[in-house]
Structure formats: structure tokens, C-alpha cells
Design a protein that fits this description.
Blueprint: H1 2-14, H2 16-30, H3 38-64, H4 69-90, H5 98-116, H6 124-134, H7 140-150, H8 155-177, H9 181-187, H10 190-225
């Protein structure tokens, strides 16, 4: 589980450039009030990460409710493929996940309308509510991370994976909120994005290989254990 949590944190960190583009504007706007709005900023990010965590728990519970070997194997293959897709997406080599964002935009519109009623923020609980809403925004990185977390097939583990994913997004988001230009520039560097993307692609390929090897081993074991038919037909 430690490896999965580390990977989830790395996913959030690797998607820093994407996070800055999608959520950077609202994160920066929350800090326009100066030091007094620091609490608002932290409340917003807390709500955002809580949203990821709750969604991860729900999907992990739903995936775990199906106790079929073929389903579990399919989820493992999906996890590897999604890691590869996220690596290509983050490295800007193939933005295959944009179709997820287009589909999610339909569901996002009513949430966006409601969240806009929370602005301007005057209380910390409004900032938390805005963060909870923003966790539902159409983002290929979030959607694919949720699908990957669901492969744990356990509400608690999936929730933890999304919690660590959310924590991984914090360096980029807090840098935007508090105007840390040097951190933002470092996270946007093409070289860093390529390295992180390659790591995700390698991890995905390794995951697919292990799943295929396990499936092959299970098939051979079933064939070996199957009773032999000694009947003869004349």
C-alpha cells in the first residue's frame, strides 16, 4: 500500500502544470485579500482534497462490491493503462484524457453555477464548500486518478490514495495562492514534466506486465489442478 500512496502523491505532483492551468486562477484569487485570506485559501484547499478523498472512497466501495476474479483482473489492467495515459498526458505527448474532460463538463455545469453563488467568499465554510465543488471539475487528471484509485477495490484504500493525490497537488496550488513564482516556474518546466511522465509510463507498463504474468500463472495453475479425464471412447 505504501507504493500505491507514493504513486498517488507523485501523480498529484506530476500534474502540477495541469493543475496550475485548471485551478490556478481561483487559487490565486483567494489570496488577493492578503494575509487575512490565508485561512480562506487553506479552507478551500482542504475542501478540494476532501472532495477527492470522498469520491475515492465511493468509487473504491463500488468497485469492491463486485467480487469476480475477471473484474479484479480487468481493474488491474485498467490501472496500468491509466498510468500510461497519465504519463503521456503530463508529458504533453498525447492528450488522450481530454475526452474525459469533455464528458465531465456536462456534469460540471450545474455544480459550477451553484459554486459561483459562493463568491465573493466571506466565511471559511464558504471556502470549504467552494473547494468541495471544485473537486468535481472536469479534469482528466482527477478522473483518471479516481479510476486508478478505484482499482484498490476498497473504500479506505481508495480514499487514502486520493488523499495523497490531493496532497501531491498542494505544492503547485499553494505556490499559486501565495505568489511563489519560483516554485511555479520550476513545476512548469518541460524537462520535469517529461521525467515525471516517463516515470508514470514505466510504472504503468510494469503494472500491465505484472498483471499479465499473474493471469498467465493463474491459468496454468488452473489447468494443472483440473481433474484429468481418463475415460476412453471406443
Amino acid at each position: 500500500m505504501i507504493a500505491e500512496l507514493g504513486s498517488a502523491f507523485a501523480l498529484g505532483l506530476a500534474g502540477a502544470g495541469h493543475c496550475l492551468g485548471m485551478c490556478g486562477g481561483i487559487a490565486a484569487a483567494l489570496q488577493l485579500g492578503g494575509v487575512k485570506s490565508t485561512g480562506m485559501t487553506l479552507a478551500y484547499h482542504g475542501g478540494r482534497i476532501a472532495s477527492y478523498t470522498a469520491l475515492g472512497a465511493a468509487l473504491g466501495f463500488a468497485a469492491g462490491s463486485i467480487d469476480i476474479a475477471a473484474w479484479t483482473m480487468a481493474l488491474r489492467y485498467l490501472a496500468g493503462i491509466l498510468l500510461i495515459a497519465m504519463g503521456l498526458y503530463i508529458a504533453d505527448w498525447w492528450r488522450v484524457l481530454t475526452w474525459l474532460e469533455r464528458g465531465g463538463a456536462i456534469l460540471w455545469r450545474p455544480v459550477q453555477r451553484w459554486s459561483s453563488s459562493l463568491l465573493p467568499l466571506r466565511h471559511w465554510y464558504q471556502a470549504i464548500a467552494l473547494g468541495l465543488c471544485w473537486g468535481l471539475m472536469p479534469c482528466g487528471l482527477i478522473y483518471s486518478s479516481l479510476a486508478w484509485a478505484a482499482t484498490a477495490q476498497d473504500a479506505g484504500q481508495s480514499a487514502l490514495m486520493m488523499l495523497f493525490f490531493g496532497l501531491g497537488t498542494l505544492p503547485a496550488m499553494l505556490a499559486t495562492s501565495f505568489g511563489a513564482g519560483a516554485v511555479q516556474s520550476a513545476l512548469r518546466r518541460k524537462g520535469l514534466k517529461v521525467v515525471l511522465g516517463l516515470l508514470l509510463i514505466v510504472s504503468g507498463c510494469w503494472s500491465v506486465y505484472l498483471t499479465a504474468a499473474h493471469a498467465q500463472h493463474s491459468t496454468h495453475a488452473m489447468q494443472h489442478d483440473a481433474p484429468m479425464d481418463h475415460s476412453q471412447h471406443h
